[in-house]
Amino acid sequence: MTTSQALLVDCDTGVDDALALLYLALSPDVDLRAVTTVGGNTDARQAAVNTLQVLELVGRTDIPVAPGADRTLRGSLPHYATHVHGDNGIGNVRLPSPAAPPVTVDAVDLIIETARQAEGELSLLATAPLTNLALALRREPRLPEMIRHVTVMGGAVHHPGNITPLAEANIGNDPEAAALVLEAGWDLTIVPLDVTMRENLTTATQRDLLAHGSAASVFAARVLDVYFDFHEEVALPYRGSACHDPLAAAIAVGHVTPLLAPRLHVGVETGDGPARGALVADTRGMYLSYPERADANARVVLETDGRFPERLVERIRTGGSAAA
Ligand code: RIB
Ligand code: CA
């Protein structure tokens, strides 16, 4: 018998957030308790609408969705990524308006309340700037004791950044929030660009999704057009994309076992120089197979097998009903 895992996702939906949500919502062993959104790829409200639309595609109108912070801890707006994710955040694909609006409870309260109700069983997955999580830690300092595990998609260790030469978007958009989350003392896994840039969606992925013909698979295929345009232009030598948030989702729920994930001390650069927003992972033990140091605060995923995209497609194809 499979036990279902209670999970709350904090995201900035987002093409790859949308695929991660579909993956999780279609996984029978995942109990998706709530989704909270934050300004990142788009503003928090648009991200909440996108989330509701995506969940409705697979009939999951039961999951509460709450928009949260639109500004970083320092009070600035994040750098929206419409050039990556399209004007509406989901690749300019138009979906029907959601049947129900987001819940009226604030995202930070929803995180705390969901954790409280789950009595130690709730895990968190953050695929966006960490502002909501940082605010939740400020509002409820006992949150780390209430949470089973936290997985963060973000940062770059031995890999360049994607918003500056050193900073990745989720960490770099709110470094102060990331610093609070990294220092909170909870059981933490980080899924950086080192692995998400090496799990690649391709035109074959798109073809397989389209061929299936369900509402979810056709959406998943179409949403990749704009995303592939961006990657082809600036990031990859072929038409395709990275697989950031879906990979982090699969690691969070134990569907992907990393090949290499040492426990390291990880901080974040919060100064205003060129390294602002960079993850500072202590990888000095790399030639010694990363012996664990006493100050380690996170498991950092540095290698996966590169085969997750096939499983993502399979989940979306088998989880949703095929075209009639
Ligand atoms: O750097 C990749 C991350 O930034 C992903 O979570 C993407 O959705 C954006 O939020
Ligand atoms: Ca995201």
Care to describe what's here?
- The chain is built from 14 helices and twelve strands.
- The longest helix is centred in the first third of the chain and has 14 residues, at 44-57.
- By secondary structure, the chain is of the alpha/beta class.
- It is globular and about 50 Å long.
- It has helices at residues 15-25, 44-57, 82-85, 107-118, 131-139, 143-146, 169-172, 175-182, 193-196, 203-212, 215-222, 224-234, 244-252, 308-319, and strands spanning 5-11, 30-37, 65-67, 123-127, 149-153, 188-191, 201-202, 240-241, 263-264, 266-268, 279-281, 298-300.
List keywords for this structure.
single chain, 324 residues, alpha/beta, 14 helices, binds calcium ion
